[in-house]
Amino acid sequence: MRIKQPFAGTARPDSVVRAEYLSHGTLECYSLEASRRFYEEFLGLECVRHAKPAMAIRCGLKFHIVCLEVGDKLHPANVDNHWGLDVGSAEEVERIWKAAHDLRDEYRIGQIMDLVKQHGTYSFYFEDLDHNWWEIQYYDGIQHDDMFDFGDRYSAADLHEPNA
Questions:
Q1: For position 55, what pLDDT does the model report?
Q2: Contacts for 106-111: CB closer than 8 Å, 24+ residues apart
Q3: DSSP state at residue 120
Q4: What would you report as the CA-atom Rg of the chain, rounded to the nearest whole angstrom?
């Protein structure tokens, strides 16, 4: 399941911004200390405190998420705005789903959705202690490659058609 070619090249050489790669995203947390424990112990992410109010977290690729401590000014996310972690098998998804239930109180995990088969994956979503959402999924292949290799399968008009 390893991504053999992590660089895809710039798709739009005529664009205003010609970035080499998408490097990072941002999420909010109440407390860096509590969130770091969850990220390292439960999610298995690497964490480094690179600024007083922030730390960088990553897993696998040279892409990171900056976690900002904002305290009570936190803006809860919803399940449609989530971060995904790919694992090596459907059984691993099920093991983690069970662990999320078993460790819910210890890591202050919020909602845990049911296991589902959707968009070619086997997965579940859950809400962390900071109201950020995570998807643990298994995809038989490299979903990222398949999405872009297949290209556009829908147009803007499809959004307004029933059952599109």
A1: 97
A2: 107/37, 107/38, 107/41, 107/42, 108/34, 108/38, 109/42
A3: T
A4: 17
Q: Are 137 and 87 in contact (CB under 8 A)?
A: yes
Measure the CA–CA gap between 52 and 59, rounded to whole angstroms: 22
Half-sphere exposure of 134 (CA within 13 A, CB side): 24
Alpha-carbon 8 to chain mean position:
20
Q: How far does CA 77 lie from the centroid of its chain?
A: 12
* Residue 139 CA: distances (Å) to CA of 3, 57, 119, 124: 13, 23, 9, 12
| The pair of three-digit structure tokens given for residue 21, joined into one six-digit string | 């790669």
Q: Which amino acid is at 68?
A: L
The pTM of the full predicted model, rounded to 2 decimals, is: 0.83
Residue tagged 């994956």 (tokens): 121
Separation between Cα atoms, residue 93 and residue 101, nearest integer Å: 13
3-state secondary structure of 95: helix
The predicted pLDDT at position 14 comes to 81
pLDDT tens across 95-114, in order?
999 999 999 999 999 999 99
Which domains are seen in the chain, by residue range?
A: 21-73 (3.10.180.10), 76-153 (3.10.180.10)
DSSP bridge partners of 122:
117, 138
The residues, ordered by sequence, that sit 6+ positions from 6 with a Cβ below 8 Å of its Cβ are 61, 62
